[in-house]
């Protein structure tokens, strides 16, 4: 789907640190797919935009960090994590333009995949990094958008539950909150 | 045109033409990639269906919807003019060209769909802070300070600041809240916000806002409740009925609303 997409303008070390950030807390409730107002085809669903919190990225990247997803009748469903300038992560249900080389070396055709920024490839003329297509084992052809979203959430540590603050232990009471910080 | 200019022109022409490419996609359609980006940095592509229909495949309005701005698009005053100017025909979620006879027809269509999302601000879930009360206070403060005929010659800032601050008072041991501080003690002014929330959240917000005036009226029959909103059309019909039956509504979209609200703050019942 599509071709080159503009990536976020981040320092590689910051980006890799953010990729590993666990959890990436999402505001606005559970990340779940909803049917569009008047669904017109089988996978006409959306992931309403949620704000993503981060302790790693600084302003302005952290100010407008969103995750959202939408479908396109002829290209399937896609999930985008963007900071207002470019993507940090994406997930595509389909790859319809020829084949692609996955990060693990496999050559795949129409297969769900994720995109992350690839700083090992930098365009010499404009300095813009490339993209790596990531295909974890849980992604498989014919998977639906809901499964794609679940694998994406797990792979990149998106957490959409409310995180309770850690309560100090009190006699005869169980300490709470710790379960949110595995 | 000299040789150098022609060479550069051909290079530009080739760059643009080479960046348009096509490949097969789902449902036997083909996708045509264009060099145009939308405001989120997404490349705009259009589709040609098996029977020769050109469409965006719902991508533009679905993206606007996912970003929480679909209602803004529906209510956009310039929508019809924009779609007409850019040769766009909306069919449910699809944006298709109205005409496809000249080069201009297709270029206007592609430019139109690529620019469209830029007119609408993303409204992610999780932004629960209601900014409307702050906006109302700023608007009414500006009106009081700069244009209201009853503004004092001295200490105008302090005078306005007192009027726009929230106030609380006790009625039958219950604390009643007003979002602004009208001079008339029998007036309660409630600011109705959350225009961008879900209908259920709006209903809850309005019920919560009406509790104080309705309770107060039971013990103080002279209570006069005023609600301030940007536009009643932002709210579900049942909530609008509730608001209009229980309060006098000032809609800030109306041209004279600012002065009307300032007057309400200053008026004293005779």
Annotate the secondary structure layout.
The complex is a heterodimer of chains A (182) and B (270).
Chain A: H1 12-20, E1 24-25, E2 34-35, E3 45-51, E4 66-72, E5 76-82, E6 87-92, E7 100-101, E8 107-108, E9 113-122, E10 129-134, H2 145-155, E11 158-159
Chain B: H1 3-18, E1 21-24, E2 30-37, E3 43-48, E4 54-55, H2 59-66, H3 70-75, H4 79-85, E5 88-91, E6 94-97, H5 103-115, H6 132-146, H7 156-164, E7 167-171, E8 174-178, E9 187-191, H8 199-219, E10 224-229, H9 237-246, E11 248-251, H10 257-266
Parallel strand pairs in B: 9-10, 10-11
Antiparallel strand pairs in B: 1-2, 2-3, 3-4, 5-6, 7-8
Helix pairs in contact in B: 6-7, 6-10, 8-9
Short description:
The complex is a heterodimer of chains A (182) and B (270). Chain A is built from two helices and eleven strands.
Explain how this protein is built.
The complex is a heterodimer of chains A (182) and B (270). Chain A has two helices and eleven strands; from the N terminus they run αββββββββββαβ. With 182 residues, chain A is mainly β. Chain A has one domain. In chain A, the strands form three sheets. In chain A, strands 2-3-4-5-6-9-10 form a seven-stranded antiparallel sheet, with helices on one face. With 270 residues, chain B is α+β, with helices and mostly antiparallel strands. Chain B has two domains: 8-119, no CATH class; 132-266, Trna Endonuclease, Chain: A, domain 1, CATH 3.40.1350. In chain B, 43% of the residues lie in helices and 20% in strands. Chain B has helices at 3-18, 59-66, 70-75, 79-85, 103-115, 132-146, 156-164, 199-219, 237-246, 257-266; strands spanning 21-24, 30-37, 43-48, 54-55, 88-91, 94-97, 167-171, 174-178, 187-191, 224-229, 248-251. In chain B, the strands form four sheets. Chain B has a four-stranded antiparallel sheet with strand order 1-2-3-4, covered by helices on one side. In chain B, strand 1 and strand 2 form a beta hairpin. In chain B, helix 6 (132-146) packs antiparallel against helix 7 (156-164), helix 6 packs across helix 10 and helix 8 runs parallel beside helix 9 (237-246). The N and C termini of chain B lie far apart (82 Å). Classes of the chains: A mainly beta (182), B alpha+beta (270). The interface between A and B is large, with 40 and 35 residues.
């Amino acid at each position: 789907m599509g071709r080159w997409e503009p990536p976020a303008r981040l320092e590689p070390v910051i980006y890799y640190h953010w990729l590993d950030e666990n959890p990436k807390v999402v505001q606005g409730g559970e990340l779940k797919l909803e049917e569009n107002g008047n669904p017109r085809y089988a996978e006409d669903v959306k992931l309403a935009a949620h704000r993503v919190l981060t302790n790693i990225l600084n302003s302005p990247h952290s100010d407008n960090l969103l995750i959202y997803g939408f479908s396109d009748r002829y290209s399937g469903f896609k999930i985008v994590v963007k900071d207002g300038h470019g993507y940090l992560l994406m997930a595509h249900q389909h790859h319809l333009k020829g084949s692609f080389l996955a990060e693990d070396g496999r050559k795949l055709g129409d297969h769900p995949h994720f995109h992350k920024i690839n700083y090992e490839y930098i365009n010499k003329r404009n300095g813009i990094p490339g993209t790596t297509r990531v295909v974890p084992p849980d992604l498989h052809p014919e998977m639906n958008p809901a499964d794609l979203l679940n694998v994406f959430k797990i792979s990149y540590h998106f957490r959409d539950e409310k995180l309770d603050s850690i309560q100090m232990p009190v006699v005869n009471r169980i300490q709470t909150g710790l379960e949110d910080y595995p | 045109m000299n040789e150098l200019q022609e060479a550069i022109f051909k290079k530009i022409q080739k760059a643009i033409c080479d960046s348009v490419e096509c490949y097969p996609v789902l449902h036997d359609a083909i996708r045509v990639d264009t060099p145009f980006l939308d405001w989120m940095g997404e490349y705009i592509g259009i589709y040609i269906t098996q029977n020769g229909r050109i469409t965006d495949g719902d991508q533009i309005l679905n993206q606007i919807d996912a970003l929480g701005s679909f209602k803004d698009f529906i209510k956009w005053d310039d929508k019809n003019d924009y779609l007409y100017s850019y040769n766009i025909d909306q069919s449910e979620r699809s944006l298709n060209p109205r005409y496809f006879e000249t080069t201009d027809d297709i270029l206007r269509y592609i430019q139109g769909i690529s620019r469209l999302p830029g007119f609408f601000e993303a409204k992610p879930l999780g932004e629960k802070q209601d900014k409307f009360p702050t906006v109302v206070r700023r608007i009414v403060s500006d009106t009081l300070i700069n244009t209201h005929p009853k503004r004092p010659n001295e200490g105008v800032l302090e005078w306005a600041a007192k009027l726009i601050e929230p106030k609380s008072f006790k009625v039958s041991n219950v604390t009643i809240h007003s979002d602004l501080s009208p001079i008339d003690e029998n007036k309660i002014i409630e600011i109705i916000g959350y225009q961008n929330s879900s209908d259920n959240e709006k209903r809850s917000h309005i019920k919560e806002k009406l509790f104080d005036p309705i309770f107060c009226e039971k013990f103080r029959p002279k209570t006069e409740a005023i609600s301030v909103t940007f536009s009643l059309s932002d709210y579900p019909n049942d909530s609008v009925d509730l608001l209009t039956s229980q309060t006098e509504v000032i809609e800030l979209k109306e041209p004279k609303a600012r002065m009307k609200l300032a007057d309400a703050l200053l008026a004293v019942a005779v």
